[in-house]
Amino acid sequence: MKLRKASAAAAAVVVLSLTATACGGDSADSAGGDGGGDKITIGIKFDQPGLGLKKPDGTFAGFDVDVATYVAKELGYDAKNIEWKQAPSAERENLISNGDVKFVAASYTINDERKKKVDFAGPYFLAHQDLLVRADDSSITKAEDLNSKKLCSVTGSTSAQNIADKLAPKADLQEFGGYSECLTGLENKAVDALTTDDSILAGYASQQEHQGKFKLAGLKLSDEPYGIGLKKGDTELQKKINDALTKMVSDGSWQKAVTANFGPANYKNEPAPKIDAS
Fold first, then answer.
1. How do residues 23-35 score in pLDDT, each as one tens digit?
2. Which of 6, 7, 153, 266 is most buried per CB count within 10 Å?
3. CB atoms < 10 A from the CB of 86, how many?
4. Is 116 exposed, middle or buried (CB count within 10 Å of its CB: 0-12, 13-18, 19+)?
């Protein structure tokens, strides 16, 4: 009898050990299984005011953060259970395909080239390439006005090349390492305009230290439909996120997030786009 009891106890320990290992070692949960795990990992930008910004106190703010938080809640995760992971533009596809994140919400324009590597939910926002100029500058009202003026953008920017190649070939293109350097140059009159997505420009212009100094030109030099990137073929998650985005628009949370994050720049955003990405 003692032997039988000892064997049964040992077997129970083995079963419990295997169960604990299975629960603790599930990488899908740690990266965020839809409502199934304790945590969900989401990729965002850490350095874009108004969209995705890591603040000095370690918290995160921005429109993309608000959208991702809403979606996560609809998937079954409280805000406190979100692990934010930095998703620089060049790393977004790798983070998704490697399973480092469940999805990415990071001013991520949907295009055919990217859709070869990842799937998208959305779009949840329609941005346009625009110009940021000084608030008292009335000399730039269209792209052609940049000819013979100094245009700033970050190194390797497709937005800057779009203007230099097609719209204002005589513009004096100045490429800096980051948008903050461009803003300093714009404020100091070292450059005349900064170009990138209007949502990004509005985010910078809405920062407290920049309010009243700059304005958007209000040009629509390109269409940039932002989507939520997720692993290729995950149609179940794609549908859940699309349902969450639809609800966010219908209950007013989407517009509230737009106003909160871009309002101080007097940014005239497009209405919520039709959700039709696949």
1. 333 333 444 445 5
2. 153
3. 14
4. exposed
